[in-house]
User: Fold these one by one.
Assistant:
Number 1:
Amino acid sequence: MTRTVYVNGEYLPETEAKVSIFDRGFLMADAVYEVTSVLDGKLIDFDGHAVRLKRSLDELEMAEPCSQQELLEIHRKLVDLNGIVAGLVYLQVTRGSDGDRDFVFPAADTPPSLVLFTQSKPSLADSPESKRGAKIISIEDIRWGRRDIKTGQLLYPSMGKMMAKKAGCDDAWMIEDGYVTEGTSNNAYFVKNGKIVTRPLSNDILHGITRKAVLRLAQEAQMEVEERLFTIDEAKTADEAFTTSASAFVMPVVEIDGATLGDGTPGPIARRLREIYLDEARKTAI
Ligand code: PLP
């Protein structure tokens, strides 16, 4: 089925949507993006994603393509037009194009490009991976130093995911200066003696929208949370581990670098957090 997508003010069949070959998103990954989940036809934590998008744009001195209210309307219309019950809305803003390639940014009044499309994923909240738990490898983190900005520079995370697949695993956690930063497309946690440990926010990791919600819900459920640097060896010898992201919610981790965690099945804290998070997400979706 041909999707209807949004490009710079127009709703079009995906086969007719076009962006210039000079667009800086295409030539230089000069772009930021957001991925918002849809459950029961409604958007999960839309405000959180809109606020982070604004922050990414501000950090890169990129113009806002439209208001938050207009963005919400575009999201809702695409969900509606494409009949999405469960899935994702991908949004990308680029610095646009002034019709040529140059390292220097185009004039400040060059219109940004705004592209959105949907991905239908009927089993989003019920994926087989969430039931069996993910297997993780560790790799070096060689990304740039502003990982708090959600840019379109995803080549190394994609390579990390491929390294994991080649090793018969699901995903990779990245390590810098001896400490785990995050997963290729998620934030990373381990649990030891009931305490949830995750890296504190800084420019080294993406400030996950799901991370924020899950840490708040964990505290409300009287779970102990510690934000500190941690090593892969601590995670390998933990009772359990998990990741969080808008597209996979809370994903249990059952193996790290070949070491089995607990009994090799999703741990009780990860399972509980997934349940609490999904429950709250559905209740507050708009
Ligand atoms: N870290 C990285 C590198 C990511 O790419 C993502 C999501 O794409 C996350 C963390 C999780 O962020 P969120 O919960 O907002 O999806």
Number 2:
Amino acid sequence: MKNFENKVNKCRRDFDKAVLRVKDEKSFHELRNLYLSRKRGRLTLLFKELNALKPEEKPKAGQLLNRLKSHIQGKLESRKKKYAITKEEARKTDITLPGRKRYWGSPHPVHLFQEEIENIFLSMGYSVEEGPEIETDYYNFGALNFPPHHPARDDWDTLYIKGDLLLRTHTSPVQIRVMEKRKPPIKIIIPGKVYRKETPDPTHLPMFYQLEGLVVDKGITFAHLKGTLEYFLKTLFSENVKMRFRPGFFPFTEPSAEVDIGCTVCKAKDEECRVCGGSGWIEILGSGMVDPQVFKNVNIDPEVYTGFAFGLGIDRTAMFAYQIADMRYFYENDLRFNRQFFLK
Ligand code: 2NL
């Protein structure tokens, strides 16, 4: 009897292993015949061996065999269902259809352009700094030499929050925070979002990106400012870009200069150019020597140190570089637009 039980168990183990390899009609029938064929199936042979057992052992042995038989039949059936489903799936797949396109994300064009600018200044030894977008009146205006209630504040179209708090209108407050903490030499750029109370149109947005630079050390002159901006603009646009400096005004720099580049689109040849408006020049940067009063506000001695600063709109400049007609395209989140700039 022990011997018979062992045979039944071995048969079950062999079957369990073999059934895993059934994967189609052919292997299904092969395995079914091997175990259940009426003449020479392994199970049939075991049933025949029942006759050789003692009469009192037969009921138990018969029960074992019947259990094995339903085990085998059950497993064969569920295996059949599995490969039948795979076959059905294959029938439903039309391999002649074009593949489904997957859309991957890509870096935003304004961010790519910001990185391009950052890399030029990093190569000149500047470091990148960041600061809060919600600021106090002091950091956004007071420390930058805007007297209280002075009309110059109106030019910055400020979005006020509550009490003393506002959304920064430029990234200059970050420079103030850095100068409060660190003593010269200072050589930094500050990219980031800034906010102004504007109605969106092709060239204005209530939120845009600005990048400012600041250099403070002994003996910094206007010549350093000019040379730095010339190197920057030639690297960003092209070696033969035209530049001009015009007098300007900012409360935080004296003297101040606006920097224009020759129109990269019409080369000053089209009186109706949509990019430069026919003037042949594009205003690209504001700049100047840091006003001594600003240094006093952060406890840097203006008798010992001088410095220059500049600022530009990142998205505005990207419009010129990529010849985009409307700044709002940058913020419509149309992947077809955004991805164009990442194929380089
Ligand atoms: C523009 C002009 C400018 C600065 C930003 C600056 C910052 C400090 C001190 C002095 Cl803490 N100046 N920043 C200076 C000149 C121009 O930006 O047209 N921006 C879009």
